[in-house]
UniProtKB/TrEMBL annotation:
Name recorded for this polypeptide: Germin-like protein subfamily 1 member
Record organism: Melia azedarach (Chinaberry tree)
Highest taxon in the source lineage: Eukaryota
């Protein structure tokens, strides 16, 4: 009987170990529809790897984050990404970076990164930044004013923002925990969807007059990421 109990304990430990080690890779694209037809299979979760013997320094290098981006748009900000598209060597490493430039009173509007946590460092200027927790935590705003040298973290998937509250340009560098973190700008997604979301539905969802919704849907929603 004792030997049976020992075998059962080992079996349970083995099963627990299997569950603990089994996990799916983080998705690296917005959608990946399953297909049984191999001829239709065009996306993979990540990128194909070339022969490591053919790797060269340029595969791990990017130049240009010292250059300010053009903030001459209605929101007064621009993002310069450095992800796997710019540095092929980032493939499978789970990390990327961005430079964000802000004109005076420019803002990076509420958005999320569906595949990454972000850690942001202010290089110049003063930013008001924050994120909003999920419904489970009562949509609590966690925000702070940052100055040069200050660092702030935006947890994965949380809606967050940055706003230059100073009279001079501001610059920040951020690292993200994905080679392709993705970005969903809330206003773009809701009011700039193509085809458009039914305005009557949005009016009720946001408790707005339908005319206001239709006006918002006609506006040009910029893509700065």
């Amino acid at each position: 009987m004792k030997s049976v109990q020992v075998l059962l304990a080992f079996a349970l430990l083995a099963l627990a170990s299997t569950f603990a080690s089994a996990s799916e890779p983080s998705p690296l694209q917005d959608i990946c529809v399953a297909t049984n037809n191999l001829k239709d299979g065009v996306f993979v979760n990540g990128k194909f790897c070339k022969d490591p013997k053919l790797a060269k320094p340029e595969d791990f290098y990017y130049s240009g984050l010292d250059k300010a981006g053009d903030t001459g748009n209605r929101l007064g900000f621009v993002v310069t990404p450095v992800n796997v598209e710019q540095i092929p060597g980032l493939n499978t490493l789970g990390i990327s970076a961005v430079r964000v430039d802000y004109a005076p009173y420019g803002q990076n509007p509420p958005h999320t990164h569906p595949r990454a946590t972000e850690i942001l460092t202010v290089l110049e200027g003063t930013l008001y930044v924050g994120f909003v927790t999920s419904n489970q935590l009562n949509n609590t705003l966690i925000a702070k004013v940052l100055n040069k040298g200050d660092v702030f973290v935006f947890p994965i998937g949380m809606v967050h923002f940055q706003f230059n509250i100073g009279k001079t340009n501001a610059v920040a560098i951020a690292a993200l925990s994905s080679q392709n973190p993705g970005v969903i700008t809330i206003a773009n997604s809701v009011f700039g969807a193509d085809p458009a979301i039914n305005p009557d539905f949005l009016a009720r969802a946001f408790q707005l007059d339908v005319k206001v919704v239709k006006s918002l849907q006609k506006k040009f929603w910029m893509n700065s990421n």
